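re: ur question from earlier - yeah i can do the single chain one, its not a big deal. heres the input i used so u can compare w yours
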Amino acid sequence: MLGNSVSTEKFVSIKTIRDDSVILKDGSLRAVVMASGINFDLLSESEQDMIINAYQNLLNGLDFTLQTLVHSRKININNYLKKIKKRETQETNNLLRLQIGEYYNFIDELVKTSNIMVKRFYLIIPYSAMPTEIATMSGSLSQVFQKIPFGKKETPKQLEQKEELDFINQKLQLSHRVNAVITGLKPMGINAIRLKTPELVELYYNFYNPEKQERTDLTIASELEDLSSEEDNNF
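and the output i got, formated as tokens:
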């Protein structure tokens, strides 16, 4: 058994989250894209073939790995119940107020007797300025190289500025990859949005606390639904 002195951070590969990017301890970056879903089984054979071909074109056009994640969680709909109750108190029509009250009781009872789940789809897009083998090795050899004098030693401020410049360059390359993936999903009828820093923090909090309900709906999820609704109205 592990002692209490061992921090759980030791087993988490994330160093920090900033500028809509997940920075890992090895220096590589990750972007997370939330994608809408499609009911493949309800499509016609020609539509299915079109989506399969579009998916093949997407994968063949990428020169980097791509991780797909389907995440199901029990959600907290207390805020939704509060909105219903507020709507009930504001309704002036007695019949509608009665129906809203019955609907509230139905949802409240449903939540108590069953788990309300939400399923979301994510794509994790990586970027590293150096090959994986070198990135892995650099962590173990960095302390050795730091002790070897190679010319003039850089000051802490210079090292910080260099690291920030490297991060900006990596972030730009990662953004290019994100745009390529989002564009490649369009022919399949799949909308996708990159998660921003607050959504990433909440997402990973939920991942590392599976025993808890999702605290709030991700803002990015509502944006994705709005985007889908706008495109549906254009047809």
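Residues 1-74+120-142+189-227 form one domain. not sure if urs matches, ping me
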